[in-house]
Structures are given as structure tokens and as C-alpha cells.
Amino acid sequence: MKVLFFISLFFGSLHSFAQLQRTIPLVQYVKPIIGTQRMGHTYPGATVPFGMVQLSPDTDTIPYEINGKYNPDVYKYCSGYQYDDNTIVGFSHTHFSGTGHSDLGDILIMPTVGAVKLNPGTADNPNSGFRSPYSHDNETVQAGYYKVLLNKGNITAELTATTRVGFHQYTFPKSNQSHIILDLVSGIYNYDGKNIWTVVHIINDSTLTGYRQTNGWARNRTVYFAIKFSKAFFQYGCKDFAKSYYNGFWGKFNQQKNFPDIAGRQIRMNFDFKTEDLEKIKVKVALSSVSMDGALKNMQAELPGWDFEKTRYDAQQAWDKELNKITIDGSRIEKENFYTAMYHAMINPTVYMDVDGSYKGLDQGVHTASGFTNYTTFSLWDTYRALHPLFTIIEPKKDIDMIKSMLAHYDQSPLHMLPIWSNSANDNWCMSGYHSVAVIADALIKNNVSGIDANKALDACVATARHRSYEDIGLYLDKGYIPVDKNPVGTSTTLEYAYDDWAIAQLAKKINRTDVYNEFIKRSQNYKNVFDTTLGFMHSKNSDGKFTKNFNPLSTNGQGFIEGNSWNYTLFVPQYPHQLINLMGGNKKFIAYLDTLFTMNLPESFFAETEDITREGIIGGYVHGNEPSHHVAYLYNYAGATYKTQERVRMILNMQYHNSPDGLGGNDDTGQMSAWYIFSSLGFYPVAPGSAVYAIGSPAVDGAVIHLDNNKSFIIEVKNQDDQNVYIQKIELNGKPLTGFELKHADIMKGGKLTFYMGDKPVK
């Protein structure tokens, strides 16, 4: 992989390592291509950290449904880019990183040469449309920059971005038939009827504005855009591919050629140029959630000129600034894995407001973010576990802005609920639990937060958790569990609600709301209601209070759980590990359970029907590729077998993360898989967000410095590090023995040094 920066780093003593400047060019270690194959679903395009624009190639346009039935092949295209494909259909400006469902893929642009073709064609016959073959040999992928040679037409495409503007640079051959295609039909997880309406206004011979409204995962989403070309087009054309039963009297005009006022549902356009050999045509595409004028203002504010190289440099400098939040020592492979994980962790959530602070809210009204940056793309079922806890350490100000965004979501929501899965002024309502409460509690408990009314935040958490009409909360409150004859994933949802209730109780305790604490600490015990003491597993119940028949703890289907089986979900009581151990028969039996989970043979039939997990994401019966098990390796600590946590963590790091295109064992899920890697390779992990302590694991780095926003540093020193030396012999915090296998958040934020002494023999 080509990189912008080349640097030889020498780490001498740990003291000199700790003094490293925070300007080390770490983008050289980022490999955005990791995780783009199989279940990773990341994308290799150009964006800045947390950018509203996420510009990337899309490699196919297969539909979400065929003949009214779900098309399973579409799952591979959650990010729009599939590494195994050999054609590119164009470059669109919005993408999700590593999600198990999808949307977006807005405003696709593609340069072509020759006769105008306003359809993408097929992968088998790319000459039938505007798509082009390409080779990974001619593809450069970096943080903030993407480059590829489009074989058809011999056009070099380059991409970079600012927060709200995508910047394209296309190098054309000599031709009187050079075109730039604007495809407003294309989208990810597309189907007939998804595009509700599209408008394009041609302002002059190099500028246009417009919007597209879609009904998808987000059922009411509007993207406004403004586009400027560096060279005037000499003509343009348009075609609406939708069937239309009523057109009014617009037939008086020829709307297919040089017509400036375009509207329809399935619009594609061509803009025509005459080019000299190696002539560069640049395109700027600005987005807004508010208006076409807002998109123009965003462009003027962030990218008024045409200096592509400077924009690329600025984007990569922005990445370097964020990546330098943590500097590590280790092998080249270790750095590539670590900084790619850092890169993935800082793609989402995404900025969702114009440069003047205006944004569209859940009520579809225009609001102004006063004193904070408004964010969207909250995949909270995933990211509450490790990504947001990571932000409390390295991005505390952004994390607070994200919480303010969640509270604004609550205020504007007609249902008066905190976000479940936020996307572009919509809630997708994806997955279970109400995990925004865990993110809010975790941040407010750990850090001294200014600008947030903790009582108001708690009220929003409570209102969400009492919303009886949402996913059987009413049944949960009445029965203490959710019957699976009413909800097919009621058992896992019961477990997730119980954890969230515990998080609410911790926040209530911190701010002395005793009544709320008493209510929710009692609710947090509801996990016991679905534990079958006769079998030793979490087991689904029906409405009559009886456990279901035909129970199979290995099965992922029809057992009451989502994205997991009972073997894994039985361990989902992160708030009460000691209670769970006692419930399961004590330390010895609990350790044996964990050992069996990690070493059993799980037959293919038990995950053959799941889209998001393959054998690569499973170790024994432990499913790392899905998030509910991410805390499991750390549970040995609570049963007195800390050395087994150390073994398992290092095993997972080695088996589930690689610096290759299929380098992830499951969906990255907007950064959660990567955040697990970051924490675990540093040597600790947040088992129960909402608690201000971390469980100790086994560090994989040779050393690290966490550069805190308060201008302090937390140094991680690893003595005798080696692939075989996975066992901790002793730990010191600031030169004194660390008792127990927990690290306090406050000790990190004060700055200091955590020293691990490693060896190849377990300390039992």
C-alpha cells in the first residue's frame, strides 16, 4: 500500500517514548482496506475524523429485493464496497462503516469517456453502462485519500474530503466525449420506491444544487447537496428512469437536454466536457441536512478553492491529530492493526449540522446546535460497550457533544425517547435495549461534565426506560421478563434491559436520586427471571411463566436471543459478574463453563443461517464477531482465574484481527470491534460501562502513551513483552503494586504510569 508519509521511528527508553511529540505521522500505519471483505463491511474511501461526508467507491448496485423477496447477496454491500469485486460503478458521499444493515450511498459520481451511458451496466458486462473495471494493483488507499485507475477510459480518480465536502479529482485522456455522470438513483440497500423525490437546479455552467429524499432504514431522510466543477461543461443531459403516471404540463419542455429545473424520482444526469490529455477536472460536492443554500455555504466555508493536494494534506493532518491520541510501541504489524482500529473508531458517529450550527431534528424542524457539535450515526447496541467508553478517555469533549446530541434527539422526538439507532434526523429502531442510557451514565459518572444537566439527562433515561409501548417494555415491567411467545428475542432483550436499568441506577446514585435508584436497581435484577437453575443457562419463558420446550443452548434461531445463543448470552450480566458466578454454581463451575465455551466445537449448522457471522468470527463456541460476548474473556478475573483472562484476550487479539482485507472476524459495527482491540491491546477493558473501573487483561503492545485532553499523559509500560509472555507477573501503578485486577478511570485521567511485568508462566 502506498502511503503519504515515510518515517523511521526509533523508540529508546520508555522515558523518551513518553516524551514523543503528538505529531508523529501515523497515517502510514492505517490500512482502511482492512475489514472490507466477508463480514467486515468497512469502506476504503476519503473522510476526515467523524466527517459528515464519507466519500468512497461503490462496487455494485444489486437490489435489496428481487421479485418481492429479500436478496441475501445485498448483505455484502452494507458499505457499498466489496473487495472481491472487479468493477466500480462510481463514488458516493455517504456510507456506514461496518454495519449489519445499511442505507445511504448518496450522490454517486462517475467519470466516463465515449458515448453517454446513463445506466451502470453489469459486472459481467461493464461496457453496457458507465461502470469501469479496476485492479487493486492500481488502487491507493489511505486515511483521508483514495486513488484508483478506472481501466475503461484510462481515467485516474482521486478523492479526499473536508468535514462536509467531498473533493474529486479526475485525470482524463484527450477526448471530445468526456463526461461526469451524476447518479441520483443509486443507493445502498436500494429498491423500487426508496427514492421518494429528487430535485436538481442548474445554477450556471459549473454549479448545481439539489436534494434527494429517501425512505429506507431511515424512513424520512433528505440530503441536500451543492456541486461545483472546476471547468464549465458545454452541455448536459438528464433522464428520469421512474415510471410516471402524471407529469402535469412539463411536456412543453425537452427536459432531457440542457434543462435547468429538474425533478423526479429516479434521476441520472451527464455533464459533458472536451478534455486534453491528462487534463484534470475537479468536482466539489457539499452536503447539508437543512437546505441547498446550506450546502453552498458549507462548501464556501470549508473548501472555497481548488487545491486538491492541500485538502488531502489537511485531511491527513486531521487524522494524524486524532491517531496521536494514543502512541504505541510495537511491530509494524501491531501498529497497522492498532492504528487501523483507531481509524475505524473515529469514523463514527458523524457530524450532522451545517457550519452555522443548523441541523434537521427528529421533528423534521430546523434547529441550531448552541455550544455543541450535533452528531448522528449512533449504533448504540454495539458502541456503548467499548467505543463510547474509549471516547471518555481520548475524546471526552466529543463524547459530551454526542450526549448533548442524544438529549436533543430526545427533546425533538415525537415519542420522547433517547436514540436507539440514530441516523440523519431519524431513528432506525435497530437492535434491542435502550443503550443510550449506558453511554450517558458512563460519561457522567466517569468525568466531571459541564454543560449537561445531570438531572435532566437522568429524566430522559427514565422516560425512555418506562416507555411501555416500545419493544415490550410494558411486559418487562409487568412480568420482570419478556415472554418469547410475544417477542421472539425477548430473552436477550430482558438481559439488555436489566443491564441498562443498572446503568440508570448508577447515575441516579451519583446525583442522589434515591427513588430512581431504588426503582432501577430492583429492575436490574430481572436477569434472574430468565435463568434456568435446572439447566444452568439463560432460557426463554412464555407468558405462562414456564420455560420453553425444545431448548437448545447452541442454536442461534428460535431460542429467544438476537445475534447469539444461550451459551454466550448466559454470560450477559456484565453489571453483576459475582452474582452470576454464584448463580451458576461458584468459581469452579463458572471457570469450567468458560473453558468449554472457548474450546467446544460449534457445528456449522448452528450459525449457517446467520448473515453476519462466519467460522472466522468464532473461537470454539465463543462468538467474537457479535458484540454481546465482548466482555466474556474478562469474566475469568471475577472467578479468581485472572491468568485465563490473559490467555483468552491475547488469543482473541491474534485470531480475530489481521492487517489484511478480511482482517476482521465480524462487522466492525461503527467502531465497536476496533474499540475492543484498542482497549484489549492496551491491557484493560470496560466490562460494565456505567462503572468507573476497567478489568485488567493482557497488553499486546510493547508500550503506549495515552495523551489526554488535560495535557497529561497516561503511560503504559510493558516489561518482558513477547508473544509467549502473555501472563502478568505483577502490576504497578505509579511505582506501587496494583492490588486486584481493576484499573480506575480516575487514575488514568490523572496521568501516571501503569507497568506490566510479563512472563510465560501463569500466576495462579
Topology of helices and strands:
Layout: H1 14-18, E1 56-58, E2 65-66, E3 69-70, E4 87-88, E5 90-92, E6 108-113, E7 132-133, E8 139-142, E9 145-150, E10 155-161, E11 165-172, E12 175-183, E13 195-204, E14 207-214, E15 221-229, E16 235-240, E17 261-264, E18 267-275, E19 279-288, H2 292-302, H3 308-323, E20 326-329, H4 332-345, E21 350-351, E22 358-360, E23 366-368, E24 375-376, E25 378-379, H5 380-383, H6 387-394, H7 396-412, E26 421-422, H8 436-446, H9 454-465, H10 473-479, H11 490-510, H12 514-523, E27 531-532, E28 537-538, H13 566-569, H14 577-583, H15 587-599, E29 618-619, E30 622-623, H16 642-656, H17 672-682, E31 684-685, E32 693-696, E33 703-707, E34 713-719, E35 727-733, E36 736-737, E37 742-744, H18 745-749, E38 752-759
Parallel strand pairs: 34-38
Antiparallel strand pairs: 1-5, 2-3, 4-7, 6-12, 8-9, 9-10, 10-11, 11-19, 12-18, 13-14, 13-17, 14-15, 15-19, 16-18, 20-33, 21-24, 22-23, 25-26, 27-28, 29-30, 31-32, 32-37, 33-34, 35-36, 35-38
Helix pairs in contact: 4-17, 6-7, 7-8, 8-9, 8-11, 9-11, 11-12
